[in-house]
């Protein structure tokens, strides 16, 4: 397996495990059994949905966070804290606003006690290399987002890293600026104008990963672990419109939306993390799938491109449609079910009825909330009562997020009401929900 190679290996991760303590003393497992390696001369892209632990893994690699178990070796030596030879480019630029471009770039060298004259020379060379010559005395507030990120790259490259780590480095930029920076980076890499011998790119952009990487590793979620790995055998520079490029993009989409092995359960259990998917966005996606040019079935890369969605925007919606049985996601395609088509064709009131039926049948948490409310004499319950149950499976923050998703879906379906200020769920507004209505929604 490629991840276990030993020759010319810059970085090796073996059985990495990371968890966080919850308030009750239990552990919330973020990463479990992650094995990964980066060879000299390789660009590796790490893909995964939100919650897969990508950024946590990057912090472990960089020595900013300690793993609970497992080993990180950089050039054959254990990583137990920040080490020389690695540099990070962050998503949020992370520049000091009171320092000039030159001063920001010099910071890393200053921390390493590089003499002032050499520090100045290397910083100016890095600024020139990254295309910011002439802006040495400018402050971050005077720069565009793309120029600020170039400062971030210069600050990382000035320390002459052997391994360059990039945490969603292009995601905060507009499309054109991000494309320009990607092109500049790959040119510097191919022309060997930077001393870097390996790049680890964490991204949520599938096309970006296929465009830049020699190899792609995909992390699953809850907890994060490697679920797939593939080589990108395309020469650089790469053509996005080439059929071979599009085929690899399709393959990655299929891998990232592939269901875990085993039979799909009829209803997701309380322990399932409900995706962040607002009802109005779900309705909009259903309508888009039903309309031209898709007519009920869409290729996911094409759908993402046409609707301007990133992975972190599209995948939660797709997962929600799949959970609710409004669409079937497989092989990199999304196809409406008969119920999905019925929902699109229905009026507002009928849509609520259909949604309610599917919510009760397919989401155990929503059904559980409704059952508790039905059985209580006053048909009321505090949200804390359900949060305590969810905290058996999730961290406090995640339990609250999952409950809020269920509440939004349940309120739309008129299964129950919610008093936000008091944190109380009730049946004061919704009408009774009968078995006949549940069957009508299927």
Describe the structure.
With 442 residues, the chain is of the alpha/beta class. The protein folds into 2 domains: 2-256, Rossmann fold (3-Layer(aba) Sandwich); 263-442. The protein contains 16 helices and 16 strands. It has helices spanning 54-62, 101-111, 116-129, 145-157, 175-190, 206-212, 243-256, 279-290, 300-307, 311-323, 338-345, 348-362, 364-375, 383-390, 396-412, 435-440, and strands spanning 9-21, 27-39, 42-48, 69-74, 77-78, 86-89, 163-167, 198-203, 215-220, 225-231, 297-299, 327-330, 333-336, 380-382, 417-419, 424-426. The radius of gyration is 25 Å and the shape is globular.
CATH class annotation of the largest domain: Alpha Beta
Average predicted local confidence, pLDDT: 87
Q: Major sheet: order of its strands?
A: 6-7-8-3-9-10
Total domains: 2
Shape, per Cα inertia axes: globular
Question: How many DSSP helices?
Answer: 16
CATH evolutionary superfamily of the largest domain: P-loop containing nucleotide triphosphate hydrolases
């Amino acid at each position: 397996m490629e991840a276990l190679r030993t020759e010319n290996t810059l970085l090796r991760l073996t059985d990495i495990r990371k968890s966080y303590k919850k308030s009750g003393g239990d552990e919330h497992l973020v990463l479990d059994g992650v094995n990964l390696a980066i060879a000299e001369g390789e660009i590796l892209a790490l893909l995964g949905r939100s919650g897969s632990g990508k950024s946590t893994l990057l912090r472990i690699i960089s020595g900013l966070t300690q793993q609970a178990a497992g080993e990180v070796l950089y050039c054959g030596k254990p990583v137990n804290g920040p080490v020389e030879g690695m540099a990070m480019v962050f998503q949020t630029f992370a520049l000091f606003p009171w320092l000039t471009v030159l001063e920001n770039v010099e910071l890393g060298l200053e921390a390493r006690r590089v003499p002032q004259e050499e520090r100045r020379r290397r910083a100016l060379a890095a600024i020139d290399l990254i295309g910011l010559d002439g802006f040495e005395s400018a402050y971050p507030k005077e720069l565009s987002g793309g120029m600020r990120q170039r400062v971030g790259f210069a600050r990382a490259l000035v320390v002459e890293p052997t391994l360059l780590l990039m945490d969603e480095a292009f995601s905060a930029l507009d499309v054109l600026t991000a494309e320009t920076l990607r092109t500049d980076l790959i040119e510097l890499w191919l022309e060997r104008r930077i001393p870097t011998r390996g790049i680890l790119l964490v991204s949520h952009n599938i096309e970006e990963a296929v465009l830049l990487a020699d190899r792609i590793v995909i992390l699953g979620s809850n907890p994060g672990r490697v679920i797939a790995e593939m080589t990108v055998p395309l020469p650089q520079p790469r053509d996005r419109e080439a059929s071979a490029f599009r085929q690899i993009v399709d393959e990655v989409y299929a891998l990232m939306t592939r269901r875990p092995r085993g039979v799909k359960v009829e209803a997701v259990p309380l322990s399932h993390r409900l995706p962040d998917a607002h009802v109005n966005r779900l309705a909009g996606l259903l309508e888009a799938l039903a309309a031209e040019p898709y007519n009920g079935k869409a290729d996911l890369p094409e759908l993402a491109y046409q609707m301007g969605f990133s992975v972190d925007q599209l995948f939660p919606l797709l997962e929600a449609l799949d959970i609710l049985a409004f669409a079937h996601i497989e092989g990199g395609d999304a196809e409406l079910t008969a119920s999905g088509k019925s929902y699109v064709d229905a009026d507002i009131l009928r849509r609520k009825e259909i949604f309610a039926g599917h919510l009760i049948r397919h989401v155990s948490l929503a059904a559980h909330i409704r059952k508790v409310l039905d059985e209580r004499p006053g048909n009321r319950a505090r949200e804390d009562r359900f949060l305590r149950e969810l905290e058996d499976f999730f961290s406090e923050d995640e339990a609250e997020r999952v409950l809020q998703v269920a509440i939004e879906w349940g309120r739309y379906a008129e299964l129950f009401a919610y008093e936000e200020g008091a944190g109380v769920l009730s049946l004061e507004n919704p009408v009774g929900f009968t078995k006949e209505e549940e069957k009508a929604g299927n």
